[in-house]
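Quick one:
INPUT:
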């Protein structure tokens, strides 16, 4: 009995048991919530055969682009419609929707950092942080990306022919990059292990566990003194906070206040980190904890997300049709020729590579679900749902905007489950989805097709005011790292792609690692044959398609 009650409340995981809540689904019809369409018992994760977002995908395919899901005392409006998503993320006033339960979950780690920040705090912090990501800085970061990609290459060369977990390697390289970029700290995780690196990973895992729990077990009285994982979490957080405090103090002790323009012009050879920029920014309150909170947020937000993009892109390319991987590799080798280090213009020139990476983010969006809470009552536009009018959203409603569902919707994409980087060169429109402009390749500007090009059917970095601040950084980092790796190596699965498996928290991980064998590409190896795969793909699909 105790087990049932605890599990129902979602406390199972805290006590080492599986959660066994009962889910209730309600579908919308004629702008009203219909009767209950499904009562589902059992472990939600097992029922879906895996992570929660897969369960939401199953319900989406059965119930349409908007439904209500309740388990235990919690209830969520699940949205998989581009018109409604655009309204919530962009069209509605910036303070209409907040991060809701996500803020509660992340607060102990990120404080009032940009991701969980309430609208008032966010407004001030976003204005402070955005200038730090200026174009000259981004270009400068390319040197860092190249240095770290080379360290990874050396490591892969040493281990040539052995089985290597590429997911773990990508996580290490992106951790090292973000450490240097955010606070000029070298984790050195590609080449060594340390208690600090372990603490970073344990904190990330705890954050992910919290975001998939139904009840805040970490808020139980004195949880950090008696609950195994929570005691460890507190110790880890103390360790990370100490390091951050030291780094901030060091930067503050050598502060030279400058205007944003002066900071952008400064060619700071010594330390180009975001910490240095923010500390030296005139008017910034360096004693404030929000500086710590923003740095911690960027460490967490900018690390496994990029690693996941690299992991899943390699996973898909390695099992693609003959010629697909070779198309990307040939482009890289042709653009770079004898150069070892790609620069900004090379990244721009490697379009097939960028489209492969962005296709990776389409099939494996990070995070797979965006979380919001309505701060006041609102009416959602009709979108593609069957309703007569818009839907009323009551104050306090918790909302999941499922990026996973949008990115894989049969209404919004041709062959949605196929990894096909060529799709980004073809338009797609479905007149049945009312109010949706479709995907238009002519609207792609910059390094990747953004949420605007696909009118919110694709949101690799979110959209609207809370859109990712690190999108350009991440695209450049991923393009440089991936191009250097595939210029120099070919990859083969150890075992089969099915062995890789999938699990999630805030980002989508493999279950068993991306275990591969790599062989070095020699400089004078001829370019492999693609048999015109890219062009053939266009001919097969037609240069534009309509649903
Ligand atoms: C926000 C994705 C890399 C920092 C977001 C959001 C998404 C996202 C979807 C919006 C969340 C929401 O609306 O609730 C990604 C992906 C990345 C990536 C897929 C890599 C492939 C980075 C990097 C950084 C970063 C490298 C920092 C260096 C942030 C921050 C926010 C954010 C600070 C909060 C923005 C705000 O609320 O104003 N990211 N991100 N991200 N991301 Fe990223």
């Amino acid at each position: 009995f105790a087990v049932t009650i605890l599990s129902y409340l979602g406390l199972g995981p805290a006590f080492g048991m599986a959660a066994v809540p009962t889910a209730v689904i309600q579908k919308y019809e004629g702008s009203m919530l219909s009767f209950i369409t499904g009562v589902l018992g059992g472990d939600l994760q097992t029922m879906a055969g895996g992570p929660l977002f897969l369960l939401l995908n199953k319900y989406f395919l059965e119930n349409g682009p908007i439904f209500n899901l309740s388990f235990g005392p919690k209830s969520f409006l699940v949205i998989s419609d581009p018109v409604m998503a655009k309204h919530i993320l962009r069209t509605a006033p910036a303070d209409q929707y907040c991060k809701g339960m996500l803020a509660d979950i992340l607060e102990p780690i990120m404080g009032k950092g940009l991701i969980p920040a309430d609208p008032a705090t966010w407004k001030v912090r976003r204005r402070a942080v955005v200038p730090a990501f200026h174009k000259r800085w981004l270009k400068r970061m390319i040197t860092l990306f190249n240095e770290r990609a080379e360290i990874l290459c050396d490591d892969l060369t040493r281990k040539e022919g052995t089985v290597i977990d590429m997911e773990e390697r990508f996580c290490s390289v992106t951790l090292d990059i973000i450490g240097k970029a955010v606070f000029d700290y070298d984790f050195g995780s590609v080449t060594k292990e340390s208690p600090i690196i372990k603490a970073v990973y344990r904190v990330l895992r705890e954050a992910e566990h919290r975001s998939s729990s139904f009840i805040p077990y970490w808020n139980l009285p004195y949880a950090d003194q008696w609950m195994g994982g929570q005691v460890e979490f507190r110790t880890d957080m103390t360790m990370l906070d100490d390091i951050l405090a030291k780094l901030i103090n060091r930067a503050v002790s050598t502060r030279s206040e400058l205007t944003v323009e002066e900071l952008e012009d400064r060619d700071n050879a010594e330390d180009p980190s975001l910490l240095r920029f923010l500390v030296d920014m005139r008017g910034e309150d360096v004693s404030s904890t929000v500086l710590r909170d923003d740095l911690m947020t960027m460490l967490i937000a900018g690390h496994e997300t990029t690693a996941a993009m690299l992991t899943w892109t390699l996973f898909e390319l390695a099992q693609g049709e003959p010629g697909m991987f070779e198309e990307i590799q040939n482009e890289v080798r042709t653009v770079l020729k004898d150069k070892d280090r790609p620069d900004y213009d090379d990244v721009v020139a490697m379009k097939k590579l960028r489209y492969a990476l962005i296709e990776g983010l389409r099939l494996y969006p990070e995070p797979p679900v965006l979380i919001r809470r309505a701060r006041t009552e609102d009416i959602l536009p009709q979108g593609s749902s069957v309703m007569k009018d818009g839907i009323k959203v009551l104050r306090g409603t918790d909302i999941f905007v499922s990026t996973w569902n949008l990115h894989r919707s049969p209404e919004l994409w041709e062959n949605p489950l196929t990894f096909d980087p060529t799709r980004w060169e073809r338009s797609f429109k479905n007149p049945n989805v009312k109010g949706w402009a479709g995907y238009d390749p002519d609207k792609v500007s910059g390094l990747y097709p953004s949420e605007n090009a696909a009118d919110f059917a694709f949101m690799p970095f979110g959209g609207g005011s809370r859109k990712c601040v690190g999108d350009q950084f991440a695209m450049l980092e991923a393009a440089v790292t991936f191009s250097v790796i595939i210029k120099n190596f070919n990859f083969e699965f150890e075992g089969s792609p099915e062995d890789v498996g999938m699990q999630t928290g805030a980002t989508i991980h493999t279950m068993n690692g991306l275990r591969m064998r790599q062989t070095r590409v020699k400089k004078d190896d001829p370019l492999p044959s693609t048999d015109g795969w890219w062009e053939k793909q266009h001919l097969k699909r037609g240069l534009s398609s309509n649903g």
